[in-house]
Design goal:
This protein is mainly α. The chain has 4 helices and no strands.
Length: about 55
């Protein structure tokens, strides 16, 4: 499941975060970062997924 979330994080960062933590602060922050720049959204999404999978 983690690989699928990483792929989603690369294609649509907020979707990867949503499947990891749901609608919480990290999700809204990721939407903001994705709107400001796609790369920061991807980096944040992968960080959230990696942090949650420990």
């Amino acid at each position: 499941m983690s690989i699928l979330r990483i792929i989603l994080a690369i294609l649509l960062p907020p979707l990867g975060v949503f499947f990891t933590v749901g609608i919480k602060g990290a999700f809204w922050l990721n939407i903001l970062l994705t709107l400001l720049g796609f790369i920061p959204g991807i980096v944040h999404a992968i960080w959230v997924i990696a942090k949650h999978d420990k």
